[in-house]
Amino acid sequence: MSEVVSDPLGLSPEQREIQAVCREFAEREIRPVAAEVDEADTQTPLELFHKAASLGLTSFMLPEEVGGGGMTDCLTGCIVQEELCWGCAGIGNLITSGGFFAEPVVELGTDEQKRRWLEPIAGERPPLTALATTEPGSGSDAASIQTTATRSEGGYRLRGQKTWISNGGLAELYVVFATVEPGSRSRGITAFVVEKGDPGVSFGEPMKKMGQRAIVNAEMFLEDAELAEDRRLGDEGQGFYGLMRTFDRSRVTLGASATGIARAALEYAVEYGKTREQFGKPIAEHQAVAFRLADMATRVDAARLLVHRAARRLDAGEAVPAEAAMAKLYASEAAMWCTWAAVQTLGGWGYSREYPVEKWMRDAKLEEIEEGTSDIQRLIISRHLLT
């Protein structure tokens, strides 16, 4: 299946090397435990996370000055993401979750803050980290955040509730977005680093989810959590800028995650189609199946092309909100369609949990929802067209 994983845009030798490392890790370490982790549901595979850390896969995206791999470009992140999520989307996204925490720290933090919070996650036994944006009443509309940060003696007092926090309750460090000026929407949003043991910080029980169960999600409660001044990232009101920059990058890399899921489904469906016989010949020789496989392959390649285009433009310093939205929209919907097509190709066996395609279909659904639903991506794209 070399034609499925080809890269028509070309990669550097270093990118080819990390691609090979990730592919081998996904095949050797991730795939053998993916079904077991899925069945366990709310149990994060920390041992596997630390194995990945020993290879630098949890910190390759961090700057060299804090001990990271220095591969800070978005394209390399996409290459890693596709390969790991080809193994298992939940585990792949868990392994690279430190990048979501690191992005606003890199974007808004001082040199001292970067050393303080990024050096630990560049180590061989890194703590889990998280980004806390979503609230019960604030999802796609990130400017409507209700969590407040009120000035107190020597710092801030945070009060509010976050939900759907990946690694919630397990992570040691959280970037939390709150408003210092309620009712001002984006103008008041400010970023803070919250530590798990801070007084006033607590978490709900892990949520039961459809897919990507390797990452625990939980609610976070901030009940007058007192933070020192140096926990603030950037100036007051700069948080929304940092959040949008984070979204641009994360949407591209999540597009790569979705591409990995879609590619896994395609490869499995092709191999099954070659061996499963009906009416005296392999089902892949029946036009209905063959054409479905052709459509899957086309969508996988198109998704990768959109993802790589957005990544390269972002790495060139361009503003890419529309390109990032296109990459995530198309890749996530391609993953959902390709996993459906794989289930359809396997027929009854595709519906069985003995085969991986039904899991991939459940995993793919999240990609159409997280970091902005497909509707939000279409809204961003349309506004770009009409302004």
Strand order of the largest sheet: 1-4-5-8
Find the CATH superfamily of the largest domain: Butyryl-CoA Dehydrogenase, subunit A, domain 3
Low-pLDDT windows of residues: 1-5
Judged by helices, strands and strand pairing, the structural class is: alpha+beta
Helix content: 40-55%
- CATH secondary-structure class of the largest domain: Mainly Alpha
How would you summarize the topology of this molecule?
Layout: H1 13-40, H2 46-54, H3 74-87, H4 89-95, H5 98-108, H6 111-118, E1 129-132, E2 148-152, E3 155-166, E4 173-179, E5 189-195, E6 201-203, E7 217-228, E8 232-233, H7 239-275, E9 277-278, E10 281-282, H8 287-315, H9 321-346, H10 357-367, H11 374-386
Parallel strand pairs: 1-4
Antiparallel strand pairs: 2-3, 3-7, 4-5, 5-8, 6-7, 9-10
Describe the structure.
By secondary structure, this protein is α+β, with helices and mostly antiparallel strands. It folds into three domains: 13-122, Acyl-CoA dehydrogenase/oxidase, N-terminal domain (Butyryl-Coa Dehydrogenase, subunit A, domain 1, Orthogonal Bundle); 129-237, Butyryl-CoA Dehydrogenase, subunit A, domain 2; 240-386, Butyryl-CoA Dehydrogenase, subunit A, domain 3, CATH 1.20.140.10. The protein contains eleven helices and ten strands. The protein has helices at residues 13-40, 46-54, 74-87, 89-95, 98-108, 111-118, 239-275, 287-315, 321-346, 357-367, 374-386, and strands spanning 129-132, 148-152, 155-166, 173-179, 189-195, 201-203, 217-228, 232-233, 277-278, 281-282. Strand 2 (148-152) and strand 3 form a beta hairpin. Helix 1 packs parallel to helix 3, helix 3 packs across helix 4 and helix 5 (98-108) runs antiparallel to helix 7. It is globular. The model is unreliable at 1-5 (pLDDT under 50).
